[in-house]
Amino acid sequence: MRLRNNPEAYDRLELCSNYIQDAKSLKGQWKKHFGNDNPVHMEIGSGKGRFITTLAQRNPGINYVAIEKFPTVLLKLIRKIPEEGLQNLAVVSIDADQLEEILEPGEIEKLYLNFSDPWPKKRHAKRRLTSSSFLSLYKKVLKADALIEFKTDNRGLFDFSLEEIKNSGFELLKVTFDLYNSDMLEGNIATEYEERFHNLGTPINKLIAKMKIDNQGGASHEVHTQE
Ligand SMILES: C[S@@+](CC[C@H](N)C(=O)[O-])C[C@H]1O[C@@H](n2cnc3c(N)ncnc32)[C@H](O)[C@@H]1O
After folding, report:
1. What's the CA-to-centroid distance between 214 and ligand 1, angstroms?
2. Distance 37 CA to ligand 1 centre (A)
3. Ligand 1 atom at shortest distance from the alpha carbon of 45
4. Which active-site residues does the annotation give?
5. Is 103 helix (H, G, I), strand (E, B) or coil?
6. Alpha carbons 190 and 177: distance in angstroms, whole number
7. What's the domain count of the chain?
8. CATH number for the domain harbouring residue 25
9. How would you write the pLDDT of the chain (227 residues) with one tens digit per residue?
10. Whose CA is nearest to atom 16 of ligand 1?
């Protein structure tokens, strides 16, 4: 079995200037850490990191934080950082359930969740990164009006996520059950998992949701759904 929490991985991560060993010390200080007043966006479950490293290269005016629970997986992400470096990317190895320990309310302006683990058994539903318990946690650290973008190949997880998001004080702005045949494809960055499933012919689902300022929950009247 691959040892995903191999302690040597931390030693190797510490050699990378993008790696944040003590993320708790940056709570409320992320903009100061990046040395500018640019917005801070976050991806949870970055995996091998193609998405967040590409995004950071495309958008130097935005700061990015990559969250990945397994340090050995983060080693693959940091290999994708170009030789000249990426000043606007920080990588953190924690479980998403610890977000409040590293973030003050409102510190994050956009959240990306890509191909999150589906946890298919009902008794594990709370572990899904789009479950109502995780959405409540995100609301505590997201800025009012912040966006969540979520992509997955897993239709069951996607349908579950649509319901949880609608019932958790977010407004669905855009939804597609077939990203590659929709106008939401423009500017898309395919993740490692996405490339694999798309090449197998699996339709990719994507939603964009906005945090409601009043946090009343309920269905959105503005949703544009594309089959
Ligand atoms: C299925 S992979 C997808 C990776 C990548 N986003 C992609 O699309 O290629 C899910 C990733 O999320 C990470 N992950 C799952 N649950 C997490 C959690 N609670 N906190 C942080 N990372 C998590 C896993 O370790 C894994 O690397």
Report:
1. 30
2. 28
3. 12
4. 117
5. coil
6. 16
7. 1
8. 3.40.50.150
9. 455 668 899 999 999 999 999 999 999 999 999 999 999 999 999 999 999 999 999 999 999 999 999 999 999 999 999 999 999 999 999 999 999 999 999 999 999 999 999 999 999 999 999 999 999 999 999 999 999 999 999 999 999 999 999 999 999 999 999 999 999 999 999 999 999 999 999 999 999 999 987 644 433 444 566 66
10. 45
84: in domain: yes
> 186 lies in a domain?
yes
Which protein residue has the closest C-alpha to ligand 1 atom 23? 45
Nearest in space to 57 (alpha carbons), one of 33, 29, 80: 80
Q: Determine, yes or no, domain membership for 1.
A: no
CA distance 165 to 182: 21
Question: What residue type is assigned to position 111 of the chain?
Answer: L
Residues lining ligand 1, CB < 6 A?
44-47, 67-70, 73, 95-96, 114-117, 191-194
Q: Which residue, 84, 97, 101, 83, is CA-closest to 20?
A: 101
In a domain, 139, yes or no: yes
Structural domain that includes position 100: 7-226
- 74 CB burial (10 A radius; 0-12, 13-18, 19+): buried
User: What separation in Å is there between the alpha carbon of 70 and the centre of ligand 1?
Assistant: 8
Q: Exposed, middle or buried: residue 107 (CB in 10 Å: 0-12, 13-18, 19+)?
A: buried
User: Which atom of ligand 1 has the smallest separation from the CA of 95?
Assistant: 20
Amino acid letter for position 190: A
The pick from 129, 158, 191, 202 for probing ligand 1's pocket by mutation, whose C-beta has the most ligand atoms within 8 angstroms, reads 129
